[in-house]
Design goal:
six-stranded parallel beta sheet, five-stranded parallel beta sheet, alpha/beta, globular, 429 residues
Length: 429
């Protein structure tokens, strides 16, 4: 891993090359994904089962209630308690995100109502197979529970027909009874278009690898997805001479172990802390269970950046990176954070470690916009599970008073029937 110096002539080009290399790799996933989606759309459960056998050695699409209950009973009580605690904190924070309906009446007795309604059905995608993420169940489902979505479905790939007991327990805690043991692009296609065994939904949310993210974008229009698609994990850490290189190294490794497509970036005004962290990172990776995955991620996508001012660091973050996770691990974080506009989630100070937020312990959501989409979108919230409808009631005097302006505009736009439909309702003298 090389340290990029903002003062070098080719800095912008070097950084852009590193970032675009990863971006192109993620985008290239959509080519093979289209074939899978079309296959499932055409052949339904037969195609779905084919891909499950191929990628997950799985031949079960719909696990029985008995199978689910048996799996949950095997779960350690301490893990259940940790999931319960996280549920309560996440639920409490997201309950504060509830929206109030708007009702307005003008002097002509025209009435306008603006109401928030839950989406009819939402599927939450929870990564699985050889990994387990009960925290992702909570993060995806709880905002939907708060929004009062009637049908929340979980799609979670099992390996050889077995789903993780902690994931199943978290689903039960959230009141989810419709569970499918499927994953990848084929699962996204099945829940978007429907099969004989699976009823389609209105929206799909949840994080996944590059193939899942590409599949969600492909089915957009058939169903809704989050504004900022949650893809492979990203973290950018701002540090200074007061930062602890051991802590920084573990924070970087923690995000890198998510997968080879994860991206970890460290930025500082102090070259020494960058070098110290680099050495510490090499030391910590030796012997860790997921060290090979983390190493691959760091070698492919890891970047250390030296910049000689806070303004330049902020500019890189806002314009080039717009990261999913941002840790501001510096002494003057309170003043620096005011410069940041684009990030999915921001941890402030040396004790605010991003790994803690991954498990929902603070209460915030870890399903966040990736691949620079934090420039225009936010993390998963209750609003993603709601739709808004306007209700308009016009009085007779109301249309008499407001109609002429609309008629003028309709005639200006050469939409004569628009004008006529209004004229017919205006009181004649």
């Amino acid at each position: 891993m090389k340290i990029l110096d903002i003062n070098s002539k080719n800095f912008d080009k070097s950084l852009e090359n590193l970032l675009s290399k990863r971006k192109k790799k993620l985008e290239s996933s959509s080519v093979s994904v289209k074939k899978i989606i079309n296959d499932v759309k055409k052949n339904g459960d037969k195609a779905l089962l084919k891909y499950e056998k191929k990628f997950n050695k799985n031949n079960i699409i719909v696990p029985s209630a008995k199978r689910i209950d048996k799996s949950i009973k095997s779960l350690d009580k301490k893990v259940k308690k940790a999931i319960d605690d996280a549920y309560n904190r996440i639920y409490k924070f997201h309950s504060l995100q509830r929206f109030k309906d708007i009702s307005y009446k003008d002097k002509y007795n025209n009435k306008i109502d603006y109401k928030y309604l839950p989406i009819d059905s939402v599927a939450i995608y929870v990564p699985g197979s050889t990994a387990s993420y009960p925290s992702s169940v909570l993060m995806n489902a709880i905002p939907g529970v708060v929004a009062k979505v009637k049908r929340i479905v979980m799609i979670n790939p099992g390996y050889k027909g077995n789903q993780n007991p902690a994931v199943l327990y978290a689903a039960k805690l959230c009141g989810i009874s419709e569970i499918y043991s499927i994953g990848g692009p084929s699962a996204i296609a099945a829940i978007a278009f429907g099969t004989k065994k699976i009823k389609p939904v209105s929206k799909i949310v949840g994080p996944g690898n590059s193939y899942v993210s590409a599949a969600k974008k492909e089915v957009l229009g058939q169903v809704g997805i989050e504004a900022g698609t949650a893809g492979p994990s990203e973290v950018t850490i701002v540090c200074d001479k007061t930062s602890n290189p051991e802590w920084l190294a573990s924070d970087l490794a923690g995000q890198a172990e998510h997968g080879p497509d994860s991206q970890c970036i460290l930025i500082s005004k102090d070259k020494n802390i960058l070098e110290q962290t680099k050495k510490e990172l090499i030391k910590q990776l030796n012997g860790m269970p997921r060290a090979e995955i983390a190493k691959k991620s760091l070698l492919q996508n890891g970047i250390f950046i030296y910049a000689n001012s806070d303004n330049k660091i902020a500019e890189i973050i806002n314009t080039k990176l717009a990261p999913e996770h941002l840790e501001i691990n510096i002494k003057n974080y309170k003043s620096f954070v005011k410069k940041i506009r684009n990030a999915g989630s921001i941890c402030l100070g040396k004790y605010a470690v991003m790994a803690l937020t991954d498990y929902g312990v603070p209460g915030t959501n870890h399903v966040l916009p990736t691949n620079t989409t934090s420039k225009y979108s936010s993390g998963l919230s209750v609003s993603e599970f709601l739709k808004k409808i306007s209700y308009i009631t016009l009085s007779k005097i109301g249309i008499d008073k407001l109609g002429p302006s609309a008629i003028t505009l309709a005639n200006y736009e050469s939409l004569e029937f628009h004008a006529k439909s209004i004229i017919k309702r205006i009181r004649r003298k």
